[in-house]
């Protein structure tokens, strides 16, 4: 019974993606299987080379790097959105799996939720 | 059609006045109790924590969503928890957190309480249904 | 690891038709799923360019508030009690 947490909001412009990640880490901390799906503008979380010091924020790349350590099962990315935003093997974070379409991923998880 | 009584966890992530979420959730909560189901707990997350502010003071001819929720929770003895990480960031604290962080005031509306995401995890495991009420979207 | 749910899904959609999650929700509907339009999503009833799936429920309070109750369509108006019943009948619920 893996829970799928969907992040469709762009990074930095709001806090909702980070709060979605907190939910994922918290499930993992309680030994509840969880995966992350980044779709639409949310795929921009997954770009290499983010530098957020001028915004006074930590890079979300750093937040996300902790995901495997916390026991998050998979980090999935919306393939068509990656293509729209110029994300490919050369600039996508390591450990991310691109999927051809998000609908089958949503359909095969029992629990699917957004953080906001 | 199922007629058995079920237990529910409601999660509100949309803020009052920025979204309809608290209002929709309140009508839903009233209807579920009327149908004989049990409301196990309410969890406020993200911007939804603003519902637990004791200081919201809308004009007198407008509904006061935090107060309506507080009255509903008290009347039906439903536990309601605002996520601590969400509340501290947004300036919503109880007396314990006020003392811990040496803040000038506390503003958590009773009977709301402050606790961690573990409350949400437990609610999902223990109850038959977890229903989310999100904002209208940025 | 994933599991194939053996039940249909109740989709609770509260976003306006222009929100990206609106289209995402409609694309994610599987045969046998039910859709509930609530809050801003009920505006879809007034948008003749949209084809809505069946069964499609719309929350009456939201429809009335927006002056859309005279619209004809294949949607079914429901109150909060009926919304609760739908959530009781469907273990798998996604709030969009």
TrEMBL record, chain A:
<protein>
    <submittedName>
        <fullName>tRNA 2-thiouridine synthesizing protein C</fullName>
    </submittedName>
</protein>
<dbReference type="Pfam" id="PF02635">
    <property type="entry name" value="DsrE"/>
</dbReference>
<dbReference type="InterPro" id="IPR017462">
    <property type="entry name" value="Sulphur_relay_TusC/DsrF"/>
</dbReference>
<dbReference type="InterPro" id="IPR003787">
    <property type="entry name" value="Sulphur_relay_DsrE/F-like"/>
</dbReference>
<comment type="similarity">
    <text>Belongs to the DsrF/TusC family.</text>
</comment>
<dbReference type="InterPro" id="IPR027396">
    <property type="entry name" value="DsrEFH-like"/>
</dbReference>
Automatic annotation (TrEMBL), chain B:
<dbReference type="Pfam" id="PF02635">
    <property type="entry name" value="DsrE"/>
</dbReference>
<dbReference type="GO" id="GO:0002143">
    <property type="term" value="P:tRNA wobble position uridine thiolation"/>
</dbReference>
<dbReference type="GO" id="GO:0016783">
    <property type="term" value="F:sulfurtransferase activity"/>
</dbReference>
<dbReference type="GO" id="GO:0097163">
    <property type="term" value="F:sulfur carrier activity"/>
</dbReference>
<dbReference type="InterPro" id="IPR017463">
    <property type="entry name" value="Sulphur_relay_TusD/DsrE"/>
</dbReference>
<comment type="similarity">
    <text>Belongs to the DsrE/TusD family.</text>
</comment>
<dbReference type="InterPro" id="IPR003787">
    <property type="entry name" value="Sulphur_relay_DsrE/F-like"/>
</dbReference>
<keyword id="KW-0808">Transferase</keyword>
<dbReference type="InterPro" id="IPR027396">
    <property type="entry name" value="DsrEFH-like"/>
</dbReference>
<protein>
    <submittedName>
        <fullName>tRNA 2-thiouridine synthesizing protein D</fullName>
    </submittedName>
</protein>
<keyword id="KW-0963">Cytoplasm</keyword>
<dbReference type="GO" id="GO:1990228">
    <property type="term" value="C:sulfurtransferase complex"/>
</dbReference>
From TrEMBL, chain C:
<dbReference type="Pfam" id="PF04077">
    <property type="entry name" value="DsrH"/>
</dbReference>
<protein>
    <submittedName>
        <fullName>tRNA 2-thiouridine synthesizing protein B</fullName>
    </submittedName>
</protein>
<dbReference type="GO" id="GO:1990228">
    <property type="term" value="C:sulfurtransferase complex"/>
</dbReference>
<dbReference type="InterPro" id="IPR007215">
    <property type="entry name" value="Sulphur_relay_TusB/DsrH"/>
</dbReference>
<dbReference type="GO" id="GO:0002143">
    <property type="term" value="P:tRNA wobble position uridine thiolation"/>
</dbReference>
<dbReference type="InterPro" id="IPR027396">
    <property type="entry name" value="DsrEFH-like"/>
</dbReference>
């Amino acid at each position: 019974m893996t829970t799928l947490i969907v992040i469709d909001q762009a990074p930095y412009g709001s806090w909702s993606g980070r709060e979605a990640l907190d939910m994922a880490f918290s499930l993992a901390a309680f030994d509840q299987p969880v995966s992350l799906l980044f779709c639409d503008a949310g795929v921009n979380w997954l770009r290499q080379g983010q530098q957020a010091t001028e915004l006074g924020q930590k890079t979300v790349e750093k937040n996300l790097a902790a995901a495997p350590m916390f026991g998050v099962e998979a980090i999935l990315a919306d393939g068509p959105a990656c293509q729209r935003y110029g994300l490919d093997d050369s600039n996508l974070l390591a450990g991310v799996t691109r999927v051809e379409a998000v609908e089958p991923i949503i359909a095969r998880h029992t629990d699917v939720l957004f953080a906001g | 059609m199922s007629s058995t009584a079920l237990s529910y966890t409601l999660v509100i992530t949309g803020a009052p006045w920025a979204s309809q979420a608290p209002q929709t959730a309140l009508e839903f909560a009233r209807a579920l109790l009327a149908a004989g189901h049990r409301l196990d707990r309410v969890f406020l997350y993200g911007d939804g924590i603003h519902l637990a502010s004791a200081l919201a003071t809308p004009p007198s001819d407008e509904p006061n969503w935090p107060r309506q929720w507080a009255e509903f929770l008290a009347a039906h003895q439903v536990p309601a928890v605002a996520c601590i990480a969400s509340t501290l960031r947004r300036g919503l604290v109880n007396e314990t957190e006020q003392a811990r962080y040496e803040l000038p005031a506390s503003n958590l509306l009773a009977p709301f309480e402050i606790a961690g995401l573990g409350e949400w995890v437990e609610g999902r495991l223990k109850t038959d249904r977890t229903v989310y009420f999100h904002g209208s979207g940025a | 690891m994933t599991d194939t749910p053996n039940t249909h899904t109740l989709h609770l959609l509260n976003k306006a038709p222009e929100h990206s999650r609106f289209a995402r929700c409609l694309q994610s509907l599987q045969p046998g799923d039910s859709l509930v339009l609530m809050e801003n999503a009920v505006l879809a009833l007034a948008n003749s360019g949209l084809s809505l799936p069946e069964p499609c429920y719309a929350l009456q309070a939201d429809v009335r508030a927006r002056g859309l109750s005279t619209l004809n369509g294949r949607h079914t108006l429901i109150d909060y009690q009926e919304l609760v019943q739908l959530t009781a009948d469907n273990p798998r619920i996604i709030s969009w």
